[in-house]
């Protein structure tokens, strides 16, 4: 008889200790997220899951697709892509937007196009990349959304590689932070482009549009954005010693306000938090029930240690839940992804982390299977 899947939720006290007090900080930004890159902990959020117009910050998704194509060997940095009339008219100098000033019918190396997208926010460069890889912006947008789904960006939908206004294109502050984290973690060999101070093309020199790069506070990426409807926003990152932070602010009224609010958020995050490790590498977080296994449960562990960054001085309890599809069926192999740890502060989700089987569990003997079947019948799971 088939087993009916249920979501088992184990709730427990994580630790009585220091936890978040967001009232200690506020920002003028309409949308904001501050994330610890190592653990994925969101240590500040404001309308983090509300839809927003990503503007040129959508180019981070364009770059993610391009970097994946390079890694797969389908594109190289030395490939040259053709500048079509569409790219020239839609993203060139006459468009009035950010541009590389690419010449019509010229061919440009992929590496130079990447640098332009990052440093100059070149709309023409983004379109040239999209057409060179996928043949059209529309097909490239399909690739963007496929990769976004693989990354887990559930609140985003992309329709073009530039971020130019489209009512069907949207993202969230949380998704933009997760996208930045993906780029930092997956493609460190290309991250240096984000901190280049300027780029010259076609005799025109343009400074990096992320003005925080030159402020001497450790910011080395990633991308700014602006449209009349959405306001000013940025996705930035800073490496403070052994810790990297990612900040998203959006919906601001000027470039100056965008710079100041991003700086304030990053500075607060770097100074006001301390690292907290509730579970060391290999430490059992919880146990999940196994139906018909040689043992009745399996231990769950993180991938390495599970670390959080929490504000100093605010005393209260953290709680956590372990969510998994129950009952689990053998065989289970050590290292299988089994569950998800969700950590809450003030009833607000601050981090989720996958949990894996600590050991293998084979199928139990007939007595074990019969006993578990009776238990499942009593619980109404069969």
UniProtKB/TrEMBL annotation:
Its EC number is 3.4.16.4. Belongs to the peptidase S11 family. It catalyses: Preferential cleavage: (Ac)2-L-Lys-D-Ala-|-D-Ala. Also transpeptidation of peptidyl-alanyl moieties that are N-acyl substituents of D-alanine. Keywords: Carboxypeptidase, Cell shape, Cell wall biogenesis/degradation, Hydrolase, Peptidoglycan synthesis, Protease, Signal. One of its GO terms (molecular function) is carboxypeptidase activity. Removes C-terminal D-alanyl residues from sugar-peptide cell wall precursors. Residues 1-23 form the signal peptide. Pfam families: PBP5_C, Peptidase_S11. SMART domains: PBP5_C. Residues 273-363 form the Peptidase S11 D-Ala-D-Ala carboxypeptidase A C-terminal domain. The keyword Nucleotide-binding does not apply. It is an enzyme of class 3 (hydrolase). This is serine-type D-Ala-D-Ala carboxypeptidase. Pathway: Cell wall biogenesis; peptidoglycan biosynthesis.
């Amino acid at each position: 008889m088939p087993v009916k899947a249920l979501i088992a939720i184990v709730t427990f006290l994580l630790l009585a200790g220091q936890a978040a007090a967001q009232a200690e900080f506020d920002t003028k930004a309409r949308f904001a997220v501050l994330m610890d890159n190592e653990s994925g902990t969101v240590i500040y959020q404001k309308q983090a899951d509300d839809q927003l117009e990503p503007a040129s910050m959508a180019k981070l998704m364009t770059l993610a697709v391009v970097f994946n194509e390079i890694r797969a060997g389908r594109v190289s940095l030395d490939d040259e892509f053709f500048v079509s009339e569409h790219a020239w008219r839609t993203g060139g100098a006459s468009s009035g937007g950010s541009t590389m000033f690419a010449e019509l019918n010229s061919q440009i190396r992929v590496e130079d196009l990447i640098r332009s997208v990052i440093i100059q926010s070149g709309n023409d460069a983004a379109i040239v990349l999209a057409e060179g890889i996928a043949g059209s912006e529309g097909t490239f947008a399909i690739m963007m959304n496929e990769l976004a789904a693989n990354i887990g960006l559930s609140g985003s939908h992309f329709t073009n590689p530039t971020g130019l206004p489209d009512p069907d294109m949207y993202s969230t502050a949380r998704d933009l932070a997760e996208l930045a984290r993906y780029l930092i973690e997956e493609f460190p060999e290309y991250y240096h482009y984000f901190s280049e101070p300027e780029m010259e093309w076609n005799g025109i020199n343009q400074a990096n549009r992320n003005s925080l790069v030159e402020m001497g506070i450790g910011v080395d990426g990633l991308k700014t954005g602006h449209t009349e409807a959405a306001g000013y926003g940025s996705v930035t990152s800073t490496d403070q010693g052994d810790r990297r932070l990612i900040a998203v602010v959006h919906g601001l009224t000027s470039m100056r306000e965008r710079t100041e609010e991003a700086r304030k958020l990053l500075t607060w995050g770097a100074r006001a938090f301390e690292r907290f490790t509730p579970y060391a590498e290999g430490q059992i977080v919880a146990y999940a029930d196994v139906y018909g296994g040689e043992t009745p449960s399996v231990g769950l562990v993180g991938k390495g240690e599970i670390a959080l960054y929490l504000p100093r001085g605010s005393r209260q309890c953290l709680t956590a839940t372990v969510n998994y599809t129950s009952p689990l069926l053998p065989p289970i192999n050590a290292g299988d992804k089994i569950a998800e740890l969700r950590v809450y502060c003030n009833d607000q989700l601050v981090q989720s982390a996958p949990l894996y089987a600590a050991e293998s569990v084979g199928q139990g003997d007939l007595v074990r299977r019969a006993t578990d079947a009776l238990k499942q019948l009593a619980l109404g799971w069969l």
